[in-house]
């Protein structure tokens, strides 16, 4: 066309006369310039067709520019608001689901944990605020600290029900767009709310900043469009004059050459579904027959879907069609030419190679996603078997059709793996459940030629691309290998589970659905996947070992059987935590005078240190109880012991202090039917009366052991026979879902509906209160009281007169005859004679003698003196000092018990 215009211009100039330096005369040159200006004036004035087109185009361009500016401004404002809504929702959900957010809500001071995180997230994401609140809308965080602790402004109902709220309101920092999302626990219960938002100033600022640029661009576009329209009109004015048939023919030839030279098929179809035009590339891609133009596209032998698309004339954008071995992307637009039949124009592009590259990129992305999911989803628990199951479940069906995990037995128990031993199948996952692979729990000994044995021995992954051609694998189990190949499994990768230098087992990946075998890239992916899982399995193995050691130590330190006594019927339960061994403990200690001590304690923390500390405290309570101290004094001594232990261990950076231990000590006397209780930071006891009523007596609580500085107080309870005293640790009444007040109320309900025996009570309480997987140890003791009848107790007041000793002996003799214990008369008279004589000589009034018939015969002498006699060996020339020696020889046990108003010297003899 340029050449055509050049020749036409030359002919016009030749007709005008003389010639200038470029072929035109000066007059012709001036005439050409005058003609150009005249053309412009004509164009602008609209007197010609080109001028009318120019005016119309300018008006259309102006309207389009104005409409575009208005639409763009509105769109920018809408997009800014929408972006604010989307960003506030995204930031709120990300912070609500962030690790640690839900746990922080259970913290005693959520603001201390969440405020710095919220501010850091706010600054990083560009929002104006991130507010964390409880389910009632009470703020824990806010950019303005003075707003913390106040109620949130906005709609919370849908978020409290588990939904998402997005709204535009006027809040404490002005008009804003905010979103409120819930924070849910693993059971789906809403435990908190998170709100994020952006103020209207921030949203509007984005649009205002973009408005000058938009207006400038519109002005430039209008100027350029006007200039372009003027240029097009001028050229149209010039080009339409003098254009002959040769030039039109040449234009068609150029158009035809370009049409058939492009690398994209062009197809024009008429309104009756007839093919009007197809260039060479369309013939090649669609495999059109010769003479296709003019025929109906449905009769050209095309694929049904492709023929239907071309015949319908509907709009299509990058619609992919399979034509033989090619993937063709088809774009089609209908044409509606005024005054002419309608039809459609379609372009066809070969996207086979592009699709192949895209497929490989998608496959690589999926592999990266799987490795990321492996890092997040494998090792969620410290259980070896569960971790192996997570690995198998992740690999199927994303990487393999079946996955098996085989571990050495020692690994399952937390020990060191022994390569020469059998392996056990711990996990099996597959797309079908009827695969003929070894089942879970099966012990397997791999033959040396099998891929799994080679992987274990060489600590390197082994791939078997075709199992039907692998004699080493078939040698493992000839019958089963035939079943496996007939089932359709045809390829295998065996990867050893290595943790450092240890080989824990082997993971096998099996393929059945895909026809191609595993390749080298998939082998590398399998190694990376198993390497990540091996770390988690080894961590679970180490934890299993340490947990087993701690459980063994803990159980060895707890009482193996309850001592024999008649004051209480006792039943107990001890359940260690699933996630780690704690320091809960209990004991039942017979005391003098047929009394029994019950003790329960808790060392804060888990692991070996907590279990070992529990053993120290239990031993100390055993020793202190031998002194027959009151409960409050015993806790005072235990508090001093814990403080000394803390001082000694505080010098060792690797040893945690004991501070945080709690204890409850109770002494029950079956004669007086009274129980004396003191506690150090421990939950209160529960008492179930014989009529079934449940109460939590008001026992003064002291600080936990080891803090020091405050004395302990004791409380006395009168317990009728048949009452049940319930002692427990905090793991029974406290957890993440319930505080201690709610836990005590639930315990009250469980005790009210329990049976009357201690064992039935223990069973009912644990069934009602114990969660499926407790996070803390639980120690529970239920003791039903008995009374020592008046017919088994004899008591006399003794005056401070040596002659009264004879009367005491006579009364003792009568009582023993009534009890049928006449054969103990001599020893009992001698013991009481010595004890009463010492009380008269060295003690103070009043003096009382009491004799109890329990599991042994107990003789007690009380006087008001606090001076205790001491056992010694008298010399041959000594006149005294042999009394207590005789008592110690005749009695099974003897000792001294101090009371607020004196002391009791007691001696116990075994019954015949």
TrEMBL record:
<dbReference type="InterPro" id="IPR052016">
    <property type="entry name" value="Bact_Sigma-Reg"/>
</dbReference>
<keyword id="KW-0812">Transmembrane</keyword>
<dbReference type="Pfam" id="PF07228">
    <property type="entry name" value="SpoIIE"/>
</dbReference>
<dbReference type="InterPro" id="IPR033463">
    <property type="entry name" value="sCache_3"/>
</dbReference>
<keyword id="KW-0547">Nucleotide-binding</keyword>
<dbReference type="InterPro" id="IPR029016">
    <property type="entry name" value="GAF-like_dom_sf"/>
</dbReference>
<keyword id="KW-0902">Two-component regulatory system</keyword>
<keyword id="KW-0418">Kinase</keyword>
<feature type="domain" description="GAF">
    <location>
        <begin position="403"/>
        <end position="547"/>
    </location>
</feature>
<keyword id="KW-0597">Phosphoprotein</keyword>
<keyword id="KW-0472">Membrane</keyword>
<protein>
    <submittedName>
        <fullName>SpoIIE family protein phosphatase</fullName>
    </submittedName>
</protein>
<dbReference type="InterPro" id="IPR035965">
    <property type="entry name" value="PAS-like_dom_sf"/>
</dbReference>
<dbReference type="Pfam" id="PF13581">
    <property type="entry name" value="HATPase_c_2"/>
</dbReference>
<dbReference type="InterPro" id="IPR036457">
    <property type="entry name" value="PPM-type-like_dom_sf"/>
</dbReference>
<keyword id="KW-0378">Hydrolase</keyword>
<keyword id="KW-0808">Transferase</keyword>
<dbReference type="InterPro" id="IPR003594">
    <property type="entry name" value="HATPase_dom"/>
</dbReference>
<dbReference type="Pfam" id="PF01590">
    <property type="entry name" value="GAF"/>
</dbReference>
<dbReference type="InterPro" id="IPR029151">
    <property type="entry name" value="Sensor-like_sf"/>
</dbReference>
<keyword id="KW-1133">Transmembrane helix</keyword>
<dbReference type="Pfam" id="PF17203">
    <property type="entry name" value="sCache_3_2"/>
</dbReference>
<feature type="domain" description="PPM-type phosphatase">
    <location>
        <begin position="565"/>
        <end position="785"/>
    </location>
</feature>
<dbReference type="InterPro" id="IPR003018">
    <property type="entry name" value="GAF"/>
</dbReference>
<feature type="region of interest" description="Disordered">
    <location>
        <begin position="1"/>
        <end position="29"/>
    </location>
</feature>
<feature type="transmembrane region" description="Helical">
    <location>
        <begin position="53"/>
        <end position="74"/>
    </location>
</feature>
<keyword id="KW-1003">Cell membrane</keyword>
<dbReference type="InterPro" id="IPR001932">
    <property type="entry name" value="PPM-type_phosphatase-like_dom"/>
</dbReference>
<dbReference type="InterPro" id="IPR036890">
    <property type="entry name" value="HATPase_C_sf"/>
</dbReference>
<keyword id="KW-0067">ATP-binding</keyword>
